Each structure stands twice: as structure tokens, then as C-alpha cells.
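User: Let's play a game. I give you a shape written as C-alpha cells, and you guess the letters that built it. Ready? Here's round one.
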């Protein structure tokens, strides 16, 4: 992983100029791993859906794929925000309505689809 510059904020002291401290590197790695796992899960679940699983399983696969895609999008968004903040870049664009909503729309769709599945199962 390349060394990233540390943006000094209140209470932060760089351990070494030009290097990221351990906690910041860990936060960066966690978001990266979350995004990668979410993307992998989404691809696998969509492939399962496309292969023609049983109807109930196809719907479950699409629901889980949507949730995982939302998790991956959220992790990517937070990683970009965190990195921009740590490197001293602009963070205001991240809080504009369009990127804020776009980063959450897929997760909302997956959550609503899961709620619909639960309600459908409860009515049986």
C-alpha cells in the first residue's frame, strides 16, 4: 500500500512526514476490503441469479446482491471522503445532495427489497 500524506487536524500529530499513521492506514484498509468484498459478493450473487436458480432463490440473490452493492458503494464513498480529508483535499463536494444520495440509493433499494421479502413471507 503506498504511503499517503497525513493531513493534520486538531489533535493529530504525524508520526513521520509523508506517512500515514497506523490507525488511518487501518481505516483505509477496512474500507477497501469492505468495498472489494461487497463487489465480489454482488458479482457472485448476480451470476447465481443469471444462472437461473429457483424463483425464491433468484429473488433472494438479487436482494443480497443489491445490499452488497450498496455496502460496496458506501465503503467507496466513505473511503474517498476519509482520504480527501486526510490528504487535505476538499470535502465539501461529498456533502452535496447528489453524491450523498447516490451513495445511499442502492443500499436503500436493497433494504426496501429485503423488507418486501420479509413482509411477503410473513403474510404466508
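Assistant: Ready! My guess for every position:
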Amino acid at each position: 500500500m503506498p504511503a499517503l500524506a497525513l493531513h493534520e487536524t486538531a489533535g493529530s500529530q504525524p508520526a513521520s512526514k509523508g506517512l500515514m499513521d497506523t490507525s488511518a492506514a487501518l481505516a483505509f484498509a477496512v474500507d477497501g476490503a469492505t468495498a472489494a468484498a461487497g463487489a465480489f459478493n454482488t458479482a457472485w450473487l448476480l451470476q447465481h441469479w443469471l444462472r437461473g436458480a429457483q424463483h425464491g432463490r433468484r429473488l433472494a440473490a438479487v436482494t443480497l446482491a443489491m445490499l452488497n452493492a450498496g455496502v460496496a458503494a458506501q465503503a467507496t464513498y466513505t473511503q474517498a471522503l476519509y482520504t480527501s480529508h486526510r490528504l487535505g483535499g476538499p470535502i465539501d463536494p461529498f456533502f452535496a445532495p447528489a453524491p450523498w444520495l447516490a451513495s445511499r440509493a442502492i443500499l436503500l433499494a436493497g433494504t426496501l427489497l429485503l423488507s418486501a421479502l420479509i413482509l411477503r413471507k410473513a403474510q404466508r
